[in-house]
């Protein structure tokens, strides 16, 4: 119950901050990358461009460390994925009738953390199904955070670095 309370309060406060316009990348910095990715990963229905925020925040002109932007974005995203895990842990949802669910659940059951790591490191919309599958299988929560966190950190580091280099390249070109 405590975990649900923390997740719900985080989503609500993040959504209010985002809709209120308080999460401008230049003003919000690391906190903004954390909150936007928390909300984006937690609220599957609301399309929040978490990776785009990390990319924009990594721009050289902003003056933020791309490593810290990647780390805070990955932390927010990893914590936000807890909603899918809890949904799978506590119920039988519509997503479990998806054609992908049975395959991903089988993969998570068979490969465990490695499957979660791969789903987290590759930008794809199927990670939510992986989180639900992990929750429905009763995959240990500390291991879930470890594997998902490692995958998200790698993904966010690659995106932040690529955006930092590409943006500076584009600025030099112009």
Written overview of the protein:
By secondary structure, the chain is mainly α. 76% of the residues lie in helices and 0% in strands. The chain has helices at residues 2-19, 25-42, 50-57, 66-80, 82-90, 101-111, 113-121, 127-137, 141-173. The protein is globular, with a radius of gyration of 16 Å.
First-last Cα distance: 53 Å
Q: Can you summarize the main beta sheet? A: none
Report the average pLDDT across residues.
80
Low-pLDDT segments: none
Share of residues in strands: under 5%
Shape: globular
Q: Decide which structural class fits the backbone.
A: mainly alpha
Helix count equals 9
Percent in helix: over 70%
Rg from Cα: 16 Å
Order of helices and strands, N to C? HHHHHHHHH
Number of strands: 0
In brief, what are we looking at here?
This protein has helices spanning 2-19, 25-42, 50-57, 66-80, 82-90, 101-111, 113-121, 127-137, 141-173.
Layout of helices and strands:
Layout: H1 2-19, H2 25-42, H3 50-57, H4 66-80, H5 82-90, H6 101-111, H7 113-121, H8 127-137, H9 141-173
Provide the descriptors you would attach to this structure in a database record.
single chain; about 170 residues; mainly alpha; about 0% strand; globular
